[in-house]
Amino acid sequence: MTTRRQFVQAATSLAAAGLPFASRAQANPDVARIILGFPAGGTVDALARRVADRLRGNYAPSVVVENKPGAAGQIGIITLRDSNPDGSSLLLTPSSMLSIYPFTYPKLQYKLEDVAPVSVGAYINHGLAVGPAVPESVKTLKDFLAWAKADPARANFGSPGAGSMPHMIGVLLGKFANVELKHIPYRGAAPGVVDLLGGQISAFCGPIGDFLQYSRAGKLRVLAIAGKTRSAFLPAVPTLRELGHPLTVREWYGFFLPGKARPEAVRRASAYLQPVLGNPEVVEYGKQFGLEIQPSTAPALADLLQADADEWRRLIKQVGFTAES
């Protein structure tokens, strides 16, 4: 069985190999797709569509975004795994599906060797927001936790999927504060935020980009973010650590090819993604969604995934977290 360390070494060697590009017929599929494990409308979908626009006519004559929501993002990875490894299928996924799920789902249908790292797409901070189901007098995280403790029937939070990083943030916050917060999983952030705005759930933990327009309009209150420092997108919102909760995490979105992709396919995908993700217009576009768009090499993404997986394995074992928590 391949270890995660061997996975990183293989990915690094694959990307660094000085092999020639494939023939034009192999390298330029007529139609390429970017697979997402979530529905349209969220931050990861916004990034995928902008990248697809920039790749179209260059990487392939046609580049489309294919949403495959379900199983908390797992279906997207399974779809990539079963795709032709010729470079015509890319996956854009949050890191949770690869760095956390292997330790929270006992019967995961994929393994790290089923994906080949290509490039980081963007970094994102997660935050906890409350909506109209929570009284207007609740203005801080301390207020919310006190309210949740006093009204356990309404003490709930949604997340983009069971076992995801936002799910884990909410569970750990509840443990730290000794407050039981019932988890309500969604098939992505967009439908969860709709329910938050409609008052069907009390709180939602997810990418801050999904909160920005509603926070600025006064429809949602973002109480805290999970990053190391405050976000430039929400400078008035404190971090969890500032508020006394020992939790600091930041998620990334990464591009991957099928695990069986040839070295030249990975090199080619990386070569086309780098200028797209580094384009100032694309970087500026990402800011409206709370995205810090920043490409990487394939080996750097492999190392990042390895480090995250090692850290989450340790933390999950420590707190006994599962996708059903």
Q: What does this 3D model show about the protein?
A:
The structure is a single chain. This protein is an alpha/beta fold. The protein folds into 2 domains: 4-124 and 251-319, Bordetella uptake gene, domain 1 (D-Maltodextrin-Binding Protein, domain 2), CATH 3.40.190.150; 126-225, Periplasmic binding protein-like II (D-Maltodextrin-Binding Protein, domain 2, 3-Layer(aba) Sandwich). The chain is built from 13 helices and 11 strands. Helix 8 links the parallel strand 6 (156-159) and strand 7. It is globular, with a radius of gyration of 20 Å.
How would you summarize this macromolecular structure in one to three sentences?
The protein has helices spanning 4-16, 24-27, 43-55, 74-81, 96-99, 101-104, 141-150, 165-177, 189-198, 212-216, 263-278, 280-287, 298-319; strands spanning 31-36, 62-67, 89-94, 115-124, 126-130, 156-159, 182-185, 203-207, 221-225, 251-258, 292-293. The chain has 325 residues and is of the alpha/beta class.
Blueprint (SSEs and pairs):
Elements: H1 4-16, H2 24-27, E1 31-36, H3 43-55, E2 62-67, H4 74-81, E3 89-94, H5 96-99, H6 101-104, E4 115-124, E5 126-130, H7 141-150, E6 156-159, H8 165-177, E7 182-185, H9 189-198, E8 203-207, H10 212-216, E9 221-225, E10 251-258, H11 263-278, H12 280-287, E11 292-293, H13 298-319
Parallel strand pairs: 1-2, 1-3, 6-7
Antiparallel strand pairs: 3-10, 4-10, 4-11, 5-8, 5-9
Helix pairs in contact: 1-13
